[in-house]
Structures are given as structure tokens and as C-alpha cells.
Amino acid sequence: MILIDGKKVSSDIKSELKEEISALYNKTGKSPGLVVIIVGNNPASEVYVRNKHKACGEVGINSTVLNLPEETTQGELLQKISEFNADPNIHGILVQLPLPKQIEESAVIRAIDPGKDVDGFHPYTVGELVIGDPKFQPCTPAGIVELLKRYDIDPSGRHVVIVGRSNIVGKPAALLLMQKKKFANAIVTVCHSAAKDISVFTKQADILIAAMGVPKFIKKEMVKPGVVVIDVGTNRIEDATTKSGYRLVGDVDFEEVSTVASYITPVPGGVGPMTIAMLLKNTVKSFKETIRND
Ligand code: NAP
Fold this sequence. Notes:
Layout: E1 2-3, H1 6-28, E2 33-39, H2 43-59, E3 62-68, H3 74-86, E4 92-95, H4 105-111, H5 123-131, H6 139-150, E5 159-163, H7 170-178, E6 187-191, H8 199-202, E7 207-210, E8 228-231, E9 235-238, E10 246-249, H9 254-257, E11 263-264, H10 271-293
Parallel strand pairs: 1-11, 2-3, 2-4, 5-6, 5-7, 7-8, 8-11
Antiparallel strand pairs: 9-10
Helix pairs in contact: 1-10, 2-10, 6-7, 6-10
NADP nicotinamide-adenine-dinucleotide phosphate (NAP) binds next to helix 10.
């Protein structure tokens, strides 16, 4: 079994981006800018935002974190987004989800300029993904494809089974992997909670992507020997032995499944760091387009 080390790959990507950003700065005197907006005090979101801010600092992206109070209205948030849309020093805008209940997520996503949609969630970006040529690939699915590339696991002609059909992971991962392109071109099955016996599908997978949000759901008997396993799940479970009182586990029972898989991602240290690396990559892509147009 080979462990797919997302931490190492993401660190390699960050080094590559750092060099690229530094070269661009030497040429233009400008650096990419990302704004991350967080509304309220969701502890998991705060950790994600902190990690994104730190990663930006490591590579030379100017990152601004805008912390808005829990009671922020939709109008106030949309006003902020409109200001960032117009700001030439901001090349990427990310609104950390979930949002408090008084704010409609889809209205917020639609308000972001598609040219700065580095998360890849705007319907315009999704439409581009459907037709096969998105300016920004959604970060988590792009991170999965990048991991496959860096481990030379070509999904072409292989059966990829995805468990989960969310707009941020399952669906866009299916769209990316089914494209008639290099390091895609897979035969894709997407499963969800309506499946009566999900193992009928998971057992057929050459590459299994688990993105359901159910701790350790995928067991050894649900996969075939030699399967490549990409575990997107990031679930907090109680653990009195840790300082925080919890630990992170994936949707895959790693101890069991790693004994039969050919490749497997760990949680943490698999897909999670890749999501951030792809966010940085998208921000740099956006920046490069603006300096090209100057
Ligand atoms: P989500 O929006 O809750 O979607 C979960 C999907 O899994 C749904 O399509 C659901 O089916 C399906 N599902 C749930 N239980 C199932 C079951 N027992 N059998 C079959 N399908 C089942 O979740 P998400 O946002 O995609 O996130 C999924 C997981 O990935 C979470 O643990 C999340 O924290 C993690 N995540 C990690 C990253 C990262 O960077 N590593 C990024 C995003 C998400 P229905 O559609 O029928 O309800």
C-alpha cells in the first residue's frame, strides 16, 4: 500500500507557487491578493480560514481576512463583496461556508465576480466546468486530480466511484474526472443516500472517492483489493486523549481499508492540504490574467 501524502504534495505546490509569485513580483512589482470573508464564529470555519491565511503568507499572496459578526445581514455582506469585486488589488474572493441562517448562500456565491471566483462555486464557473473549460477548477476536486497526477495514477478508462453528490465535492469531482482530457477520461459513477446497498457500487471502484461526511463508513469488505482510495471526509469525533477533546477522521475506515488498497489518502494530511494548495493556485491564475490584461 502506498500512502498518498497530500501534505507533501501541497508543500511542493506551495514552493512552486512561491517561486512563480516572486518572479512575477520582480517583473511587475505586484503580488496576488485574496480576501477571505468569515461570518460568525463557527470553530471549524475559523480553523480553515486561519490555515488559508497562513498558506497565503507562506507563498507571498497578500491575504485579508474579513471577520464579520454573526448578526451580519445579507445586504451588508453583499455590499462588502461588491467592494472587493471592484478592488483591483483583490484577485480572489472566498466566502467561508456555512453562513448564518439569515444569509442565503446562493445569493452570496452569485454576487462574487466570476473572474475572482477562486473557490469555483459561482454558477458561471460551474457551467464552464460542465462544458469542460473552467477558468477556476473547484479546489477540493482539483486537489484530488492533482494528487492522482503527482502519484501517476491515470484515471483514464478506469471506474471512479464517488460517494456523495454535493455541489462542492461530489458533483464537480465527477465533472472533472469524466472530461475527455489527460488525467481524467474516467468512467464515473456517483452514489448518494438513496442507494439501497452502497457496497454494490463501491466494490466496483478502481478509484473510490469518499465524500459523504460519515466517519469511517467505508469498510474493507466494501472495496475490491487494489483499489485507490481518496478520502475527502473530514469528521470531528470525540477523543478525550487529545488536548482539543476531538480528532479528525475520514469517511473511510483507514486501519481496515489500508490493508487492501493499493493507494490511500490519510485524514488528516490527504485531501485537506490540497484544497488549500488549489485555492492558492487559482488566486495566482487570476492574478496572472489581470497582469496580462494590464
Ligand atoms: P454534504 O454536502 O453533506 O454531502 C454529503 C453527500 O454524501 C450527500 O450527497 C449525501 O447524499 C451523501 N451521503 C451521506 N450519507 C450517505 C450514506 N450513508 N450513503 C450514501 N451517501 C451518503 O457533504 P460535503 O460538503 O460534500 O462534504 C463531505 C465530507 O467531505 C465532509 O466530511 C466534509 O467535511 C468533507 N470535506 C472536506 C474537504 C477537504 O478539503 N478535505 C472539502 C469539502 C468537504 P444525499 O445527497 O442523498 O443527501
